[in-house]
Amino acid sequence: MVFPFDLQHRRDCQSKHAQRSHRIRSLTAYHGPFSVLEREILQKPIQELVQDVQNSATQPIDVLKTYGKVALKAHESTNCLTEVMLESAEGWLKEGSINLKGPLAGIPVSLKDSLHVAGYDSCIGYSMHTNKPVFSPMARTLNDLTYFTRSIVEMKPWNYDYTVHPIPWRHDVEKEFLEKKKLRVGIMRTDGVVDPSPACLRAVEMVEDALRREGHEIVEVDLPHLREILRVASLALNSDGCLTYSSFLRPGEWVDAGAAQLSYLASMWRPTRYLYYLWVKYVRRDALWADLVRDFRPQSAFEAWKLVSQREKIRLAWFDWWEAAEVDFLVTPPNATPAVPHDGMGEAVSSCGYTFMFNLLDYSAGVLPVTHVDKNLDQLPKDFKLSRLNGVARGAYKLYDATAMHGLPVGVQVVGRRLEEEKVLSLMQRVEDALGDDKYELLEID
């Protein structure tokens, strides 16, 4: 739907943009270069900052302004902020409503806008959710990530959120895997659908070499149902034919290119989809892509329960595999390629197997940056041909360009079993320690 039926959508977007711009302009204290004190604050681990705030050695307003400056600087480059709450946060400090003796005393956090904060919108990108105010942590360093996650669990969130498992932080597990002398490490080099790009594979190999030098046992793994996982996860996630997220769209409102691609596939007329499936399978001879698109449509209740049954069979197979392999953890690429260009997910939307599979399995996983794309080391082989790839891999590799991506961060994924967050964080620390001087260099704030 186009003009004139998209007027309300346009008005709300313009209103929201204007509101955000006004809030940012009014924060005069958050602009300008970083002071010596602010640089010192940024270099401190959050555990040390918390202690300084609790002991009144550092003022919480200084911490807020420092990280507020970083947030605005990031926004200048990436347009990442939807709601700017810094002025409200200053007010919360002045009125004394902030607990400055707790385990995260004085530490600012950013929230995904699917989480509700009183007085602010939680629009998750839909214009119809603007002007109607209503846990997967990331941190700059691994040390901060561990401290933050531990602190959240030690607050006993199950007492105020019924969805949280009532499992206290297991310090013994954390300590065990920080100190275990010899680890057994499974290396997952591919998800069976899209082989990792040279940059992403190099990061895995750097970690493999580092762990081997430390004397740990490296195991080549043969994992079950890799391609089946992508099929089951894709159909289960989109079992409504993408109708739920589409239902929030107003006339004229656009969506992410990847979401648009999924909606297009799901809404194809059934005979057309079947003809497309036959063409992909027998003319293009791409059985994997054909298998994905054949049933990509709204599923009946009966079909949805069949997917649940298939998921549980996959989980059982992985449980049996892990028991037999006796590995402490897996090292995998987190994605087949580094970050793709803006709007690139229209091509690469189905290339998500390295994370998708662990969502389906409900495993604990953490991503650790290791290195950067190097245009001299990470070029595709001279004999590489896009036409040889399956449909999923082709979408991902259309966007891979080591020269254009030079300098982008590349990491590895550390994977444990279900409800093993303490263990995974400890093993991420072991990986970072093993890398030594080769570990990831943080970006400068200037």
Automatic annotation (TrEMBL):
Domain Amidase span(s) in chain numbering: 63-133, 136-425
Pfam families: Amidase
Domain of life from the UniProt record: Eukaryota
UniProt cross-references to PANTHER family, sorted A to Z: ACETAMIDASE (PTHR46072:SF10), AMIDASE-RELATED-RELATED (PTHR46072)
Record-given protein name: Putative amidase PB8B6.03 like protein
Source species: Verticillium longisporum (Verticillium dahliae var. longisporum)
